Amino acid sequence: MNIEELREYCLNLKGATESFPFDEFSLVLKVQNKMFALIPLDNPETQIALKCDPEKAIALREEFSCIVPAYHFNKKHWNSVIIDPSISRDLLCELIQHSYNLVVAGLPKNLKEELINM
Fold first, then answer.
1. pLDDT tens digits, residue range 16-66?
2. Phi and psi of 37, rounded to 5°?
3. How many helices and strands in the chain, by DSSP H and E?
4. What gap in Å lies between CA 109 and CA 70, rounded to an integer?
5. What is each CA distance from 55 to 1, 65, 100, 107, in whole angstroms?
6. What's the burial of 34, exposed, middle or buried (CB within 10 Å: 0-12/13-18/19+)?
7. Which of 1, 16, 43, 90 has the fewest Cβ atoms nearer than 10 Å?
């Protein structure tokens, strides 16, 4: 997947939006104004930072060399996934969905209901 494919996949998730709040070199993807993904646009390697529960994050880092702690965020809860041939599109989509689901699960009830009704 390239950056545009990553962006399109994320924006197809219910209620997902994008912004450039840090600088013009970071694309942030949010649901109900809570970040679930960050794509650094100034990095020579295509990558995406995703939220992850700590146990899963550790297991993924041990299994895949292309998954490392995200330098922007709490290292227990975020992974940077470097997009290279060692990671399948299916796994990448699963990781994006996991990050999105974690953020949605943490939303207040009224925001979850608003998302369901979109």
1. 999 876 677 888 999 999 999 988 888 778 889 999 988 889 999 999 989
2. -155, 150
3. 4, 6
4. 29
5. 26, 17, 17, 21
6. middle
7. 90
Q: Which residues contact 15 (CB under 8 A, 6 or more apart)?
A: 31, 32, 115, 118
Contact 51, 101 (CB under 8 A): no
State the pTM of this model: 0.88
Rg of the chain in Å (alpha carbons): 14
Q: Do the beta carbons of residue 79 and residue 61 sit within 8 Å?
A: yes
As assigned by CATH, the class of the 3-116 domain is alpha beta
- List, for residues 84-117, the tens digit of each pLDDT value: 877 889 999 999 999 999 999 999 998 888 888 8
Q: Tell me how far apart the alpha carbons of residues 63 and 57 are, in angstroms, rounded to a whole number.
A: 10
* Beta-carbon count within 10 A of 82 CB: 17
In sequence order, what are the beta bridge partners of 79? 50, 69
